[in-house]
Write a structure and sequence with these properties.
The protein is of the alpha/beta class. The protein has two domains: 115 residues, Rossmann fold; 194 residues, Rossmann fold, CATH 3.40.50. It contains eleven helices and eleven strands. The strands form two sheets. Strands 7-8-6-9-10-11 form a six-stranded parallel beta sheet, sandwiched between helices. A five-stranded parallel beta sheet has the order 2-1-3-4-5, sandwiched between helices. The longest helix is centred in the C-terminal third of the chain and has 15 residues. InterPro entries: DgcN-like, DgcN-like_C, DgcN-like_N, P-loop_NTPase. This is EBNA-1 nuclear protein. It holds the Pfam family DUF1611_N.
Length: 336
């Protein structure tokens, strides 16, 4: 899938920043591809890049409008259709990471055909995956896991890729969600794979490699989330992870989108080890990544110190404070 850049980010009228996390992720890790944003009335997200009309975006060289939002069920609201049709009429391709296929909506399909434009459904792959086998394969793998969804698993894996490469590691980010695919140009949205083939798809994403090569696999959901635990478990088994990092947002009391309470970091560690041992009996935690965006620096450092003391693992906010301590732990636990 070759998506033409640069991008115009379509944010619709989403109610908060988390609902536009695809757009934020691309903006944070590929800012050179982001020309501007298009927001509807009532939109509560702001990428901090120029607000552009479709005509202005085309004049600035934009090639593709990216529907940069996520929502429960991956649906496309009906009142967004006219905006997507207008983008196609303006000469832009359109790419989406939602579950619903753009071409399944008649008005969008007709506009794309009429204007000779391309529709990209990033969440849907043309690959055919086998079932997972759990057979030991060479190479090393790290999986980011979470106490909840939307806590920083993708950002942690990307930060680790950057930090490990700077230290001389042979390391690659492996995308398992639509935003990661936009960022890396390769991968598969695991939550759109038929359940029987999830672990096999992850084995495809992170295949056999050189003994000291690290695949840094983007986690999804949480083993404790009533909606997404099935995806998280299949991903864990397919990753056959040697190491994992627990990702956590400390200000939440409930899991996102449901009434279930948030598990503790220790509960996540224990269940990840227990379940992950099915395909790698030596799986172990190597760090804790805490999303401290909602905290002051002093509060953040206190939370990180407490996490380190409680769990005996390096704890950091990968975006705010870097990942050096976790990379140190990886180097010590897995010498070349």
């Amino acid at each position: 899938m070759q998506i033409a850049t640069p991008y115009l980010k379509f944010l619709g009228d989403v109610p908060d920043r988390l609902a536009a996390k695809t757009a934020y992720g691309i903006n944070d890790w590929r800012p050179e591809w982001c020309v501007g944003q298009l927001r509807m009335e009532g939109c509560a997200a702001d990428l901090g890049i120029p607000d552009l009309t479709l005509e202005e975006a085309v004049a600035k060289g934009c090639k593709t409008m990216v529907v940069g939002v996520v929502n429960a069920g991956g649906v496309l609201p009906e009142h967004w259709v006219k905006e997507i049709v207008a983008a196609l009429n303006a000469g832009l391709d359109v790419a989406s990471g939602l579950h619903v296929r753009l071409g399944s909506i008649r008005a969008i399909a007709e506009a794309a055909e009429r204007n000779g434009r391309t529709l990209h459904d990033v969440r849907h792959t043309t690959e055919s995956f086998p079932t997972g086998k759990g057979t030991k394969r060479p190479g090393r793998r790290l999986l980011t896991v979470g106490t909840d969804c939307s806590v920083g698993k993708k950002y942690t894996a990307l930060a680790l890729e950057r930090g490990m490469r700077e230290r001389g590691f042979d390391a690659d980010f492996r995308a398992t969600g639509q935003t990661g695919v936009f960022i890396s140009g390769r991968g598969v949205a695991i939550d759109a794979v038929v359940a029987d083939f999830i672990s096999g798809a992850v084995e495809w994403v992170a295949p056999a490699a050189e003994p000291n090569h690290w695949d840094l696999i983007e986690g999804q959901g949480s083993l404790f989330h009533p909606s997404f635990a099935g995806v998280s478990l299949g991903l864990l088994h397919g990753a056959q992870a040697d190491a994992f990092v627990v990702c956590h947002e400390p200000t939440r009391s409930r899991m996102r989108g449901v009434e279930a309470g948030l598990p503790s970091i220790q509960e996540v560690i224990d269940l990840t080890v227990r379940c992950g041992a099915l395909t790698n009996p030596k799986i172990r935690p190597v760090g804790i990544a805490v999303n401290t965006q909602a905290l002051s620096e002093a509060e953040a450092r206190t939370v990180l110190r407490e996490a380190e003391t409680a769990h005996g693992l390096p704890a950091t906010d990968p975006v705010r404070f870097g990942v050096e301590a976790i990379v140190d732990r990886i180097a010590a636990e897995f010498p070349a």
